[in-house]
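Moderator note: this is an archived Q&A kept for reference. The question asked for a predicted structure of one protein chain; the sequence and the answer are reproduced below.
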Amino acid sequence: MKTLLLRLFALTALFALTALFASTGILRAADDLNVVFQQGRAAFYRGDYETAKVYLTQVATAAPNHTETQNLLRYINAHGKKAGPTPQQTYAAVILPKVDFSDVTLPEALDGLRILTKNASQGRVTPNIIVKGTAVNEKKFSLTLNNIPLTQALEYAVQQVGGRLTYDKHAAIISDLAQAEPSNLAPTPPAK
């Protein structure tokens, strides 16, 4: 009788320990899933929909009834379209066969570059270029280049007049070095 009670007690203890370890694993898995969800959620609110989709898809696979995950994924699928290329990427893809300017001002050179770009891209690309300041508009220069991307041609033209070239979401911006904002003084990143 005592051995039966000892065996029963040992089996009960074994089951209790197994249940304890199993529940700890479940809790750990739930914590890990919550960490993955929080990373996806943080990426979503940063606007990084691609990263958010990766994390949230993992959560949705493990917990298909998680409402907030499903709502975020629905939003990403409806609104998270990939953005098009930046102006710098678009302009870098246009190769100008020949650029030959002699004794021109920056506005004249930019008009010429617009025409050359339109011709080189068969009308698909027309550069949007904004000039801030007047000092860069007055200086005359000459420029001769062959088989060069539009981004490089713009950079050379801007260097000739002592200006600064930066890019934003929709345009190339040329400014006087004296008027350049401190945030615009960082070098322009290369096109991807």
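Archived answer notes: Confidence is low (pLDDT under 50) at residues 22-27.
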